[in-house]
Amino acid sequence: MVNRKELRPEDSPRAAYGAHLRRLRERRSWTQEDLAGRTSYSSQHISAVETARKPPTLQFSREVDQVFGTTGTADSLERLWSEMRYANLLEGFPEYVAYEGCAVEIRSFHLGIIPGLLQTPEYAQALANGDVRRGSITQQQADERVAFLMERQAALVRDRPPMLLVVMDESCIRRVVGGSDVMGAQLERLLAFAALPNSVLQVAPFAMGERRSFDLPVNLLTLRDRSMIAYAESHAQGLVERESTAVLSILTAYHQLQAECLSQADSVAVVEQVRKGMS
To answer: What are the respective helix, strand and coil percentages of the chain, to the nearest 5?
Structure first.
C-alpha cells in the first residue's frame, strides 16, 4: 500500500487508539475512504487519528463504533477513548467528576492553586506546562489535561447550575502562576465568580494558623436526592467517600472552616488588592 505509515501503538495512548482504529478498519478490508463514506468524517481526518496526529473525540469514537458494530464490546473505540482520557488522572478522580457533573451543590477547599472549576485556560495551561518541564507528563498529556478541565467546567453550565461554595487558602491567590498577566486575568475571573448568584467565595487567611481545619484539598457534593459524597486527594491518589458518618464529619469540619474564614466581601477585597498588585 502506497504511503502507508507504520504505527507504533506503544508510543502513547493516542497512538494505541490509532492503531486499534486501523486494525478494525482493515479487518473489514476497508480503506480510509470507505470508512469516511460511512461516517461524517473525511478520509484525511481518519488518517490523522490513525497516525496520532489528531486526538480522537467522544463523538468520533461513538460514530465509528456504530459503523463497525463495536458499541459496548471489548473492541469499542469509546471504551479505549475513555481509558486514554483518564490515563493521567489520579485514581478516584474520574469517579468524582461523574458525580460532580450532576451535583446540586459543590463545596470545596483548596491549597496553593486556584480550584480547577475556576481556572482560566491560560492558568491551567501554565500549570500543565510546569509538569511537562519537570518531566512528570508529556506535552500531549498536558494539552489533554487542560481540554478535560474545560469540558469539566462546561458540564456545570446548565439552566439550573449548582451552588458552588469555594474556600481558598490565601496561598492560592498569592502564588503567581504563568506570570503577572495570566495571574491578573485569573484573579479577575475569581472576582467575576464571586458576583454570581450561585457562588460563595471565601479566603482562608494565613493568620488562621492552626484553626484551619484541613491540610489537604477537600470536595463535598450534594446530589439531587440530597445524599452527599466527599472527595479528598493527596499527591499520589484520590479517594471518593460515600459512608455517611465520614462524610458528615468532613462537612462539620468544612462548616468550622467557613466560620473562621474571611467573609465573601472581605475575601473579594483581598483578591482585588492582590490583582491590583499585578498591574
So the answer is: 55, 10, 35
